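Sat 14:20. Reprocessing the chain from the morning session after the first attempt stalled halfway. Input below, unchanged.
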Amino acid sequence: MTTDKLVFVDLETTGANPAVDRITEIGVVEVDHSGEATHWSTLVNPEQPIPAFIQSLTGISNDMVRKAPTFAELATSLHERLEGALFIAHNARFDYGFLRNAFDQFGLSFKPDVLCTVKLSRALFPHERRHNLDTLVARHQLKADVRHRALADADLLWQLWQKLRSDLPSETFDAALRSLLQRPSLPSHLPTNAVDNISDTPGVYLFYGENELPLYVGKSVRLRQRVLSHFNADHKEYKEMRLSQQLHRIEVRETAGEIGALLLEARLIKDLQPVHNRLLRRQGDLCAWQLNENEQGHIVPVLTHASEQDFGRAERLFGLFSGKRKADAALRALAESHQLCLVQLGLERRSGPQKPCFNWQLKRCNGVCVGKESESFHRARLEAALAKLRIETWPYEGAIGLIEQGADRTDVHVVNNWCFLGTARSEDEVHDLLEQSPSRPAFDLDTYKILHRALANKQLPVRLLHRQHN
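Finished this time. Tokens:
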């Protein structure tokens, strides 16, 4: 396999986040079709301070870059230097991501073919565990006078290329290149065949880091396309870059359709607590407002918790909320928008007999607290305000199966009291799920929303599995 032009590139930066950090040094070894190499490097003024630990690591100080050109001054000529070449770097997504972002700032499109020397080493030496640059220097006896400077590291990659070319059969080397350049750009810690067996079917994918640490759980109706989309972000988002750098293994679990994928994703996030699913992994102290009669005979909202009663069977529930603070805030917002009484709602203590609530003084209460509005009328307005937050009582006597038909499989999602018990593909599995389910499964907010939408919209056929006998 021949390539007309190669560029071996290394960058030094102020940090790891291309959204906020900047390039401090660029090193390029440019190799033409004849094998003639040209070395070029420059310091870059990042226009922001270099952190002390980065200065210690690279030896590049704030003083050194103060009079260096900015990237704006270098962008056009650097783009011309790199244009049309095979872009080669170690952990290439890092260097490519920084340059792509930097060029974007000046309207310069940068989409070269990219080769990562970490992946090249893995492909050629799959039995070796380590492929960092220091290890490759020792393994292949490269000449490293200095490390963590851009041109020196770029030259090491050029040395590595020549060494591999001379030591390995050309068919082996070229086959590895063809394979890597025809594949999606995968994170460096993944094996080259990591996505080969992922189909474009519905399901859930799981990303694991070092030592099987759960990193992220996602779902899609097209698994392969969605997984690959994580690796095509060009690191414009810091989260995607960090996820790629940490990723060591991908697992997929196929489902018959979207509902099964949504239910499985919600369960796995709660079970595995992946570090990059922060917004969905915890539901906190799940609670809701319930309309009850107090000692004075007034109907008032009382905060109740999923740990205290069966939310699937309870009546007159409104919410759901992940804690008391959010529940209070939601009720106060309703009071504001519907001119409800804070004292009547239990959100404010009366300062004295017949004293009005604070909202009455602001003309935001219709005056039930001072006899200007009847108790029954205030209650009717409260129930109308809460209507959109109403939690549906489970509409069946017992468990049901939601039947989801896929291209080559049929799944039965076993559900009871708005709780997902699991997915079965045979009658024996249905029976086992029903027998093994706890008497009161934990109520989950995300699962409730998925199931409520599926039933309300009649997205799947329903099969009654058994009836409860009192």
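The first strand starts at residue 6 and ends at 13.
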